[in-house]
Automatic annotation (TrEMBL):
This is sn-glycerol-3-phosphate transport system permease protein UgpE. It is a multi-pass membrane protein. GO terms for cellular component: plasma membrane. Residues 78-269 form the ABC transmembrane type-1 domain. PANTHER family: ABC TRANSPORTER PERMEASE PROTEIN MG189-RELATED-RELATED, SN-GLYCEROL-3-PHOSPHATE TRANSPORT SYSTEM PERMEASE PROTEIN UGPE. It is found in: Cell inner membrane; Cell membrane. Its main location: membrane. Belongs to the binding-protein-dependent transport system permease family. The gene is ugpE. Pfam families: BPD_transp_1. CDD domains: TM_PBP2. It comes from Shinella fusca.
Length: 283
């Protein structure tokens, strides 16, 4: 049996390979600064004083990371950042979930007007209210405290909007079925609807954690005592001209140390982000 056999190329295979190639190139470009930072962190500071071209050449050392353990305040700053980031994340998730449920499921006077006012918060930059915020926190004596670092970002307009839209996407029939079982609105929220919003909460939680962990503007204003510095402020305060010229490896090790929690959080929860973005949360 002789029959001409024609080899068929899947449609769009060339385009897919092109996109894959572009993605790999962009990934390499984005990862290059990270690789450079890690390389600096494991080089001896004396060797780096002679030039940074030896970053990717042996020998390497862990002395910079050991110096973090024994001779720096990085762990204190790390703890401050952890308390602030976790506190903000929990607060935003609780408040945004409650507000989202109220706007999406409950009827009360001026509901739409209040929701529009909340959304106005997305258009107001933080710098526009920084003077009034600083004076308010100064009057109440909240500067140089965990409460002072956590409270300002608990009112998340983005979080309220995200959770409201997610609650609206859940079919009303679920609420009606729960009401037939004599469930109260609070019980419906806690036991029935809230578990369905896990992907949205994970997404909001990650964004909130990243913002709080990397925040520089407000901690720079509110935390004036060194023991209350977060990692972003603490590392910036150690970047003197002397440190940049003779302690470049140590500064790089601090930066790597500060970025590890962010990487761990994203790796653990990234599948929830994908689920939320793809809209596959509500079956």
């Amino acid at each position: 049996m002789s029959q001409d056999q024609t080899t068929y190329r899947p449609e769009g295979l060339t385009a897919n390979r092109t996109l894959l190639t572009i993605s790999i190139i962009l990934s390499i470009v984005m990862m290059a600064p990270v690789a450079w930072l890690v390389g600096l962190s494991i080089k001896d500071n004396k060797e780096l004083m002679l030039g940074t071209e030896s970053v990717f050449a042996f020998p390497y050392t862990l002395v910079n990371y050991l110096n973090i353990l024994y001779s720096s305040q990085a762990f204190g700053w790390f703890f401050n950042s952890l308390v602030v980031a976790v506190g903000q994340t929990i607060g935003v998730l609780v408040l945004s979930s409650l507000a989202g449920y109220a706007f999406a499921r409950l009827e009360f006077p001026f509901r739409r007007t209040i929701f529009v006012i909340v959304l106005f918060g997305l258009a107001v930059p933080e710098q526009a209210v920084i003077i009034a915020r600083h004076q308010m926190f100064n009057w109440f004596g909240l500067h140089n405290s965990y409460l002072g670092l956590i409270l300002p970002d608990l009112s998340s307009a983005f979080g309220v909007f995200l959770m409201t839209q997610f609650f609206r996407a859940i079919p009303r029939e679920i609420d009606e079925a729960a009401l037939l079982d004599n469930a109260s609105p609070l019980r419906i929220f806690w036991k029935v609807l809230l578990p369905l919003t896990l992907p949205a909460q994970a997404t909001l939680g990650i964004f909130t954690f990243l913002h709080a962990w990397n925040d520089y503007w407000w901690p720079l204003i509110s935390a004036t005592k060194k023991e209350m510095f977060t990692l972003t402020i603490g590392i910036a305060s150690s970047q003197t001209n002397f440190a940049q010229s003779e302690g470049l490896g140590f500064l790089s090790a601090q930066a790597v140390f500060a970025s590890l929690p962010v990487l761990i959080v994203y790796v653990i929860f990234q599948r929830h982000i994908v689920t939320a973005v793809s809209g596959g949360a509500v079956k």
